[in-house]
Amino acid sequence: MDQGRGRAVVRKLAAGNWKMNGLRAEGVALAEELRRHCAATLPGCDLLICPPATALTAVGAALTGSPIGLGGQDCHEAPKGAHTGDISAAMLKDAGCTTVILGHSERRADHHESNALVQAKAVAARAAGLAVILCVGESLAERDAGHALAVVAQQLAGSLPPGLDGATLAIAYEPVWAIGSGRTPKAAEIAAVHGRIRRELSGRVPDPAAVRILYGGSVKPDNAAALMAVPDVDGALVGGASLVAADFWAIAQACA
Ligand code: PEP
């Protein structure tokens, strides 16, 4: 059991979000380097990388037979149709993805994605057979105003559809001000938010203890072990450091 908190230990998850970085050849080279590090499944951690859509098929081919999973960074809420430039959940599945990141703060900011839209996307992802990494997190102004817990709870309530469980859902707590900034919240602040997320999951999923709650925002090799030791932190969603195979591997090992 996990530190006497009555929770069975879950396998952690280290997920790399490459964002809009990497042409196919660069993505394949990065995947191959990561694969050389990760010859076998880590004892306590699953690995997932989420390349740009254009590199999914090539990176997926480079990962064939490896324990590293493939994920998308977003999907449309409709199964198909006249949505120029978008990608459906079924297309991600067809490209070899098992999982999709939804509600990332960059999508919420750059594309004005609402909680309701993120929820519709999660429904579409599940209909296509994808697991969901659902992102939540407060802005700096919201944290400074003392509203971090309420904001995260509200995002969760608004964007989590019914019908998901520990096998099909992970939550990523990503304070917006920590992403790409080199700053991270204090351990107690992360523990407070993750604990609140766990409580909010009660009544919304059948197995709240089994849902992995990832921390994301400036996770690096030198802070990963400390972040993974925070109660209720079940892995990491990694941006910048996932673009360097040795760094992402070091983070994965800290998770394991
Ligand atoms: C992210 O955007 O999901 C992220 C965690 O980025 P970074 O690790 O670069 O802060």
Describe this structure in words.
The mean pLDDT is 95. Strand 1, helix 1 and strand 2 form a beta-alpha-beta unit. The protein has an 8-stranded parallel barrel, surrounded by 5 helices. The chain is an alpha/beta fold and 256 residues long. It is globular, with a radius of gyration of 17 Å. The site of phosphoenolpyruvate has 13 residues, from strand 8.
Question: What's the gyration radius in Å?
Answer: 17 Å
- Strand tally: 8
Protein structure class: alpha/beta
Termini separation: 16 Å
Helical residues, percent? 25-40%
Strand order of the largest sheet: 1-2-3-4-5-6-7-8
Strand content: 15-25%
Shape label: globular
Largest sheet: 8 strands, parallel, barrel
Low-confidence stretches: none
Query: What is the mean predicted local confidence, pLDDT?
Result: 95
Task: Name every ligand kind in the structure.
Answer: phosphoenolpyruvate
The total count of helices amounts to: 10
Question: How are helices and strands ordered from N to C?
Answer: EHEHEHEHHEHHEHEHEH
Task: Name a few traits of the molecule.
single chain, 256 residues, alpha/beta, eight-stranded parallel beta barrel, 10 helices, 8 strands, binds phosphoenolpyruvate
Q: What can be said about this structure in brief?
A:
With 256 residues, the protein is an alpha/beta fold.
Secondary-structure topology with pairs:
Layout: E1 12-17, H1 24-37, E2 45-50, H2 56-63, E3 68-72, H3 89-94, E4 99-102, H4 105-110, H5 115-127, E5 131-136, H6 140-144, H7 148-159, E6 169-173, H8 187-201, E7 212-216, H9 224-228, E8 235-238, H10 245-255
Parallel strand pairs: 1-2, 1-8, 2-3, 3-4, 4-5, 5-6, 6-7, 7-8
The structure holds phosphoenolpyruvate.
